[in-house]
Amino acid sequence: MKLSRLVEGIQLSVTLALDARAKRLAAEGRDVINMAVGEPDFPAPEAVQDAATARVQSGDVRYTPAAGAPFLREAIAAHLTETRGVDYAPENVAVCHSCKHALSGVLLATVEPGDEVLIPLPAWVSYFELVRIAGGVPVEIPPAAGCRPDLDALARAVTPRTRVLMVNSPCNPSGYVLTHAETEALARLAVEHDLTLISDEIYRRLVYEGEPAKSPVSVGPDARARTAIVDGASKAFAMTGYRIGFAAGPPELAAAVTRLHSQMTGSPNTVSQAAYAAALREEPPEVETMRREFAERREILLAGLEGLGLETPRPRGAFYVFPNVAPLLDERGSVGFCEDLLEEQNLAIVPGSAFGMDAHVRLSYSLPKDLIQAALSRLEAFVLARRPSS
Ligand code: GLU
Question: Residue with the nearest Cα to atom 8 of ligand 1?
Answer without folding.
Answer: 16
